[in-house]
Amino acid sequence: MPSPIASLKHAVKAVVATRPGFALSRRQRKPGCLVLLYHRVGLTTDPFPNLDVASFRAQMEWLVRTCNVISPDQLRDRANRDSRGSRPDVLVTFDDGYRDYYEHAYPVLRRLRIPAINFLSTRFVDEPSLVSWSDRLYLAVNQTTKARAALPWAPSQMFELTAPGKAAFLRGSKDYIKHQPELEKEATTESILDALEVHASSVRAPRQTMTWDEVRDASELTSWGGHTHNHVIVSRLDLPQLEAEIRTCRDRIGAETGVAPDSFAYPNGRAIDFTDDAKGLLERYGFRTAFSTINGVNGIDTDWMEVRRISGGASVNDLAWRMSRLQC
Question: Among 63, 92, 264, 313, which one is least packed by beta carbons within 10 Å?
């Protein structure tokens, strides 16, 4: 049974999600644009966690009713004007080019005529059998038959592999690997699979990213941005490695779609995950805008190589609550 505080918060979110409630919450809002970030949109039967397509559809319908959903080429102009008193301007973005974007999210966007940007890690589009280290970890943690396990770098800390323990083990694994040099991530992932007694050959999944044909087919309302070639954290690369990642990603998208991308999203996207050198390289290769995962509103003072974004949450109430808190 939910606690009284949780019940109160749920009730407040529900009020904020109403048209009068949301209008009232943004009376003192900051000028500028909000940029929403999504990853997977799918079904409960899918192998990986996602935002249920019905919840996504409800969120997009709420946006159309309540906000001005803008196209990528409107972002700077709308961010630089004082829009207080009018409906907030919102841009929709997706990271990673998952296939469920084509199968589930894009049909919703097309029906509602909502434009979006999707940021592609091009090696995963090029190679259909590729499964990311984070997805392999998720599958391995859920496949293991072990009752207890320790992370290889912290053998004294045992996790009981019940549902909460698996979630904690997975969080600890991901947090550690994200801080490793890119060349060491695969070996570290293999060591975790060994600790779970899950063989690498059993960690398989259906194709997770779109094909280039699907990318082209969704291009009417989708702009395609770069997300590196190998989905690497750019602050952990030396300049030659980073340049190769940016150039390859740009060239593959340009070759397959006929349009070289001018927007980019930093994998992981926290302030520690990109550098001034990365910004300079992106600009040299024709990228005018780069998106982070740092929360905030984008206004007249925005660094366009460090655009702020927020997650849409799991429901309309979550989305309205997050947007209203950022804009007050």
Answer: 313
Q: Which residue ranges make up each domain of the chain?
A: 16-127+210-326, 133-202
CA proximity to 221, closest of 76, 90, 73: 73
CA 119 vs CA 8, 20, 94, 102, 246: distances in Å? 37, 34, 6, 13, 12
CB 291 within 8 A of CB 265: yes
Nearest to 280 by CA among 252, 249, 311, 246: 246
Residue with tokens 């293991």: 144
Closest alpha carbon to 105 in 44, 50, 35: 50
The pLDDT tens digits for 61-87 are 999 999 999 999 999 999 988 766 678
pLDDT tens-digit series, residues 92-110: 999 999 999 999 999 999 9
Assign domain 16-127+210-326 to a CATH class: alpha beta
